[in-house]
Amino acid sequence: MAHEHKLEIFRGLWKFKSNTQKIWGVLAFLSFVTAIEVILGIYKPEILMHTWIDPLEGGFFATIGNIILSPIVFMKPLNLIFILLTIVKAYYITWDFMHMRDEVKALRRMVVWTAVFLICYLVFILLQEGGYVFSVYNADDALITRDF
Amino acid sequence: MDSTVASTGTEGKTWGGGNKPLKASYGKMMMWFFIVSDALTFSGFLAAYGFSRFKFIKEWPIADEVFTHVPFLHGQELPMIYVAFMTFILIMSSVTMVLAVDAGHHMNKAKVTLYMFLTIIGGLIFVGSQAWEWATFIQGDYGAVQTNGGNILQFGEYVTVDGKEKFKRISIDEFAIASEGVRAQHERKNGLWFVAEESLPPYTVSEIYNGLAANSNILVRTQLINEEGEKTVLSREESLKQIKENGKLVVKGANLKVNEYGTSLFADFFFFITGFHGFHVFSGVVLNIIIFFNVVLGTYERRGSYEMVEKVGLYWHFVDLVWVFVFTFFYLV
Q1: How many CB atoms lie within 10 A of CB A80?
Q2: Contact A94 B51 (CB under 8 A)
Q3: Which CATH superfamily is domain B40-141+265-332 in?
Q4: Fewer CB in 10 Å around end: N or C, chain A?
Q5: Do residues A129 and A77 share a domain?
Q6: Is the pLDDT of residue A2 over 50?
Q7: Which 78-97 residues of chain A touch chain B by CB within 8 A?
C-alpha cells in the first residue's frame, strides 16, 4: 500500500522530513493556538471587548453593509478572534490528523463543502431567529412581564 | 448457457465497475460520510445553544464565572485552566492516534500497540475530567435564590482588590441564618403514593432573607448584563426588597430544572452538549479498546493492513474536532 503524505503546511512555508515530524509540528501549532485562546480568555484585553465600529445607519445600503460587515459590526473582536482561531484549529485537525490533505479533491469537497454549507445555513437561520425572539421579548410593547 | 449475460463488454472501461474514483476504501468513505452527518447533529446542538443565548443575550451566564474550579486547588478561582487542560489532553490523544495510524502504515505492530494504548489512556483521562466537571457543576458553589419569574439572584459584596473595587460572590452558607423548623419531606409513604418530592433545598428563602438583613455588606446581583459586560448589582434596599417579595426558592448547584448560575437553559445545554460529546468520547474509547485488542492479537498483521486503525482514528479525531468547537462556544465566546 502506498501512503504518500504531503509533508508541508502553511502552503509550503513549513516542510517536514517525515509524516511523524509533521504530526508533532501540527501539535505544536495547535497547542500554540489553544494557549493564545486561553490567555485571551483569561485576561480579556479591554480593547477587544467592544466593537470597533457602530452599525451603519441610513437606508437600504446601510443594511446591506451591516449584513456584509456583520462579524465586525455586531461581534466583539475577542469573540471574532476566538471563532477564527477555532476554524484554524479545525482546519489543521481535519487536514493533517484526519489526512484530508492526502485525499483526492472530490472526496474532500464532498465532505467539507456539504458540511460547511449546511452548517452555515443552520447557524444563520437559528441565530437570526434568536435575535428576532430577543427583539420581541424586549420590545416596548412586549407581552411578557419581568421581575426587574 | 448463454441465457445469462456474463460479460458486458465493458470490463476495464469507465462503467465496467470496480473503479475507485475517490481512491478511498468503502469503509473509510462511509466513516467520512458518518462524520459529516454527526457534525451536522453537533452543529444543530451548538446552533440551538446560540439560538437560546441570542434569545436571552442580556442575561446569559458568563462562562468564566461558572467554570472556575481545578481539582486539588480548592477555593481558587482559575477560570478556563481546567478546560484548557482537557482540550490539551484530547489533542494529545489525537496525536497518539495519528501516530498509531502512521505506525500502521509501516506495519509496525509494537508501535501501533503502544500508541493505541496511549490514546485509550488519554480518552479515559478526558472522560474522567468531564465527569469531575459535571460533578462540580451539579454541586454548585455559591447558591442563589430563584424568583417567582424564574430569574436567579446571587449574593456578594464589594471588596477592594489592588485599589479596584470588585464584586466578590458570597456563598449562602456563609450568611444564611438557619432556624429551627419542622418541614417533613413528602415521601410516597406519607403522602400521595403517586408523587414524590425531590430533596429539599438547604435553606428556605426566609432564612436567606434573615441572613441578608443581618449582614449590611451583602448585596444582590441579578442576571442582567450591564454596559460594562458585568452582571448588575442591586442597591441594598432593592436587594432586601427583591428577596422578600420576589424570592421563591433557594437553589444550590444545577440540574435540568434549576441552575444557580443563571438561566436553567444554560445548564440544560451544558448537560446535553457536553454529555453528548462525552458519550462520543466514551464510545470512541470502547472502539479503541476493541481495535487495541485486535492489534495485540495480530488480526491486522495477518490481514496485511491496519486500515481499521485508520477508520477508528478518523472517528477519534472527529471527537477532538467537535470538542474544539464546544470549547470555543461554551467556554470562550
Answers
A1: 16
A2: no
A3: Cytochrome c oxidase, subunit III, four-helix bundle (1.20.120.80)
A4: N
A5: no
A6: no
A7: 79, 82-83, 85-86, 89-90, 93-94, 96-97
CB-based contact (8 Å) between A70 and chain B? no
For β-strands B164-169 and B144-147, DSSP reports them as: unpaired
DSSP per-residue letters across B209-254? HHHHHH-TT-EEEEEEE-TTSSEEE--HHHHHHHHHHHEEEEE-SB
A92 belongs to a structural domain: yes
Q: Do B151 and A147 touch (CB under 8 A)?
A: yes
In a domain, A22, yes or no: yes
Of the partner residues B40, B50, B80, the one whose CB lies closest to the CB of residue A118: B40
What residues make up the domain containing A145? 105-148
Q: For A97, list phi and psi in degrees, rounded to 5.
A: -80, -40
pLDDT in tens, B51-110: 999 999 988 998 888 888 888 887 777 888 899 999 999 999 999 999 999 999 999 999
Instruction: Return d(Cα B261, Cα B25) in angstroms, integer.
Output: 48
Cβ-based contacts of B246 with chain A (< 8 Å)? 147-148
| Alpha-carbon gap: A32 to the closest alpha carbon of chain B (Å) | 10
Assign B175 to helix, strand or coil: helix
This prediction's pTM: 0.89
Whether B51 and A127 lie within 8 Å, measured CB to CB = yes
One domain, residues A23 and A94: yes
Q: Residue A143 has which C-alpha cell?
A: 407581552
Of B330, B311, B296, nearest to B86 (Cα)? B330
